[in-house]
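user: can you give me the structure for this one chain? C-alpha cells are fine.
assistant: on it. calling the predictor now.
[tool input]
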Amino acid sequence: MSAPLLPNAKVNSLEFFHINWNVWKMLGLQIFKRDVHTLQRLAVSRAYFAWSIAANFMGTILFPIHLAMGIYESRNKSELFNSISISITSIGATIKFFLMASKMKQIAQMEALTQVLDARVTHPEELWHYQNRIRLNIFNIQRMFSVLYSGVAASVAALYLSSGERRLIYPGWLPFEWRQSSGFYALAILYQIFGFIFQISQTYTNDSFAPKSLCLLSAHIELLYKRVSRIGFEGPNEEGVGSKAALQQEEDKLNLCVLDQINLYE
C-alpha cells in the first residue's frame, strides 16, 4: 500500500507517556522529574512538595504497613490469605514506585533520545506507518491497562458493597477502634479508599510505562529498517546515479542511520 504524503505531520512519541506523567504528578513523583536537556531536577512549588511528602507517607509507606499488620487481625483462613495477598501486592507497589523514582534521570535521557529519533521520521512512508500502525498499537496497550485496572477497582468496590456487613475493604490495623462509632468507621473507609486508589494508580502507571517504552523502541527499530532499505534506491535520477555527489549523499544517509542505531543502543 502506498503511503500518502503527510507534509505537515510530525512525530511526537512522548505523547504516549502523557498519562503516565499526569498520574505521577498526582502521586507526587513530579519532585523527581528532570529536564530532558540538562537532566537537572525541575523546580516544584512548596505546596506540591508538601503534598508529595504527605501523600506518599500516607499512601506509599503507611498503607502497606496498615495492611501487613492487618494479617494479625484476620478472623479466619480466608481473611488471612486475602490479607497476605493484598499486603504482598501493596509492598510490591511501594517497591516499584521507589524504583521508578530512582530512574527519573534515565527516563529523562530516554525522552531526549526519543525526541532525536522522532525528528528523523520525515519520509511519507515512515509517517504513514507511524500514524496508522505504531501509534495505534501503543495506544491500544494503554487502553488495555486502563481497562484491566478499572476492572480491578470495580471488582473490589463490588465485592465490598455486596458484602452486606459493616467491615473494612481490606483487613488492616488502625490506631483507633473503627467499630466504636460511625465516624471512626467512615474515617477508616476513607483512608482505605485513599490508599487503594493511590497504590493502584502507582501500579497502573508503573506497569504501563515499560511495555509502551519497549513497543516504542521496537517501532523506531522498524522505522530505521525502512530508512536503511531506501538507501541507494531513492536518490538522484538516472543521469546522476554514480556521480560523486550522489554517492556522498547516500553515504551521508547511511551515516545518519548508523547514528540512529547508536541512539537506539543507548
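assistant: here you go. The longest helix spans residues 182-229. The CA atoms of residues 168 and 196 lie 12 Å apart.
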